[in-house]
Amino acid sequence: EERLVESGGGLVDAGGSLRLSCAASGFTIDDYTDDLTIAWFRQAPGKEREGVSCIRRSDGSTYYADSVKGRFTISNDNAKNLVYLQMNSLKPEDTAVYYCAADYYAEYCSTTYSRRADWSRLYDYWGQGTQVTVSS
To answer: 75-101 b/e with 16+ CB inside 10 Å = b?
Structure first.
């Protein structure tokens, strides 16, 4: 059974850094499902869920939302089935619950799909979320 578990959230001052981790288990890569994408989404109170970044397992290609480009870095450790989101220069507007999501259709991790209003709903597997709070 596929499972995602996030960790690393917390309270940080504006300008500070946090590193989120997403531990993936139970995902099978074979001839029928030859790739995987893992993404980070976030949702602030009263706001829509927003895509932050994603990465494709096979070639490490990435996508970033404009709001985090240059400040956040996504990376993966395939041997450990971990995906990281390094968040630097944090701002109060980064405050949200951050969710890790995965799907076997790696094409979802692309600029094309990220522009879709239903982008988050395309991902089949979700973690429980981790709270990130940035104080001003």
So the answer is: ebeeeebebbbebeebeeebbbbbbbb
Output phi, psi for 23, to 5 deg. Answer: -95, 120
Cβ contacts of residue 123 below 8 Å, gap of 6+?
39, 41, 101, 102, 103, 108
CA angle 64, 106, 50 (to 5 degrees): 40
pLDDT in tens, 66-121: 999 999 999 999 888 999 999 999 999 999 999 999 999 999 999 999 999 999 99
The half-sphere exposure of 2 on its side-chain side, counting CA atoms within 13 A, is 16
